[in-house]
Predict the structure.
Amino acid sequence: MNSAFHISHIRSLHTRSLAIVLATLIALTGFTVADLYGQPESRAVPVFVDGMAQEVEAFKDPGQWITHDLFVETEFNSDGDGKPDRMHVSVTRPKQTETEGLKVAVIYETSPYYAGIGSTGSDFFWDPKHELGAPPAAGHEHPDIPHQNNRPLINSSLLRTWVPRGFAVVHSCSPGTGLSQGCPTVGGENESLAPKAVIDWLNGRARGFTELDSDEEVFATWCTGKVGMIGTSYNGTLPLAAATTGVEGLEAIIPVSPNTSYYHYYRSNGLVRHPGGYMGEDVDVLYDFIHSGDPAQREHCDCEIRDKEMANNQDRLSGDYSDWWAGRDYLNKLDNIRAATIMAHGFNDWNVMPEHSVRIYEALKKKDIPHMTYLHQGGHGGDPPMELVNRWFSRFLYDVENGVENEPRAWIVRENARRSAVTKYADYPNPEAQPVTLHLTKGGNASGGVTATTSAGQGTEKLVDDVALSGAELAAAPSSGHRLLYVTPVLQEPIHLSGTSRITIKLASSKPAANLTVWVVALPWDSAGVRKINDDIITRGWADPQNHKSLRESEPLVPGQFYELSFDLQPDDQIIPAGSQIGVMIFSSDRDFTLWPEAGTELTVDLDATSIVMPVVGGEEAFRKATTETGAQKGL
């Protein structure tokens, strides 16, 4: 019988029936009643009620936890010293794993941030004032991170949640950070193989040592071999990275706001685009931000990784997708994934945008592994409700048959609800969402129209780029020559959007290169700031018209010549209330995300060849009903 006892399947039985069940189990196993309820006379074990791990009194005292660290040998050498790199790992576990032979599952978080981070001052970022198509301005300064020696405890996150529930908690520093050897690569192969090595050690397949230069081995005899990973942002990227290796023993992962493609983080449809809030950041800046490893090895890593590999491949001139970027895109590495996965993200995360999780979730649908998604209306971060996290780890790390994998797959937080108050849907996007093709009618310098009815002869309209004006200013302006805005009639009923909108646009530029930005907004725009800006912005996207043929190939535009391109905006699930209008805003440079060229580039949009497809729950009928469009208006 498993050392963890599950009582959720019998707690609702009639008392007499329960007595019979208990008597039978005792007769078959030799366990006592105290054993069955997880409080044996001489030993403690994990206890599960209603499919969830419970806090056990014997595991709750931090003063009795066992904490130690070690160095796990990997299968790579990224710092050029001719020896396999070793990763710094810390373990915190119940004392019973030492005193009573208890074996426990592991909750594991790995990070490049545990040992300090670099400065975020503007001197350490690229200057966004950069003419498109011209070589980037001179480089930037590189911060020096003081070296830290965090022993034996690397980090305390997760300890108070999981150790009292009968799990061990493991932390490790990523390559080239803290006491871990190697070089940071920001998405390189060693960032996947490092947590794989730790999981291999937990399963007895890799070697762990007491010191970086020691031959004295450390063994995880207390581990069942089953591991779950969770983390947010970079710490959420690394569980997915580990899972792509197919490592045996990694049973479940919960990436929260993970960066699943460094191209999608720093580029957008061929355009150099910065993550929200970090203007001028690029992959080499992130390298500097995390490079907290041994100072004696930093010169080698800086030279080989940052100043050669990254400098030669990140390409701030064209923004094209390349094999180097493809190697940092985890969507290309999912063949071996086997871990049960919950992807968690905020629809208004403009740092690591929601496409990062949605693109992986869509791929997981095609694989025979348990998968769910938790999506909320806020920004960066936000774990799924503890109930779901607990049930997920209990199910896949302790084999508790709680049925979580049979729940509705999409847990979505509706507008203005608490993050724990979810609405459950069969899947994401909402299975009832259908693509609705919408067309634009002239008048965009003030406000043109958005309609499901095709209206030929709309002609062309122009805007003039000026990065000094923010997107919010342009959306709020009653008229502007610096953007084109097209709006629906006032909604008579709410419209529920669920999925990814896609725009097809035909345009000409007055210069060989131009930024292109598209926002979908809820109007009237709240200039007073009473509402959160997330209520005003529905979704948005960016593209480089020079990449109208391919993400891998850009070409200078012929001024005045029209080009057609199509690209996705960010995924969303939002109910736009009655009384609002949905607006489609087209402009050029977005000062919060794109490079900042000199003002004056003119874009001309062919309205008759431009449309946007939106995922509307209820389809075209729901859209027409909400906007009072009729079949007669359509010409039916």
Notes: The radius of gyration is 27 Å. Confidence is low (pLDDT under 50) at residues 6-41, 631-636. Residues 295-313 form the longest helix (19 residues).
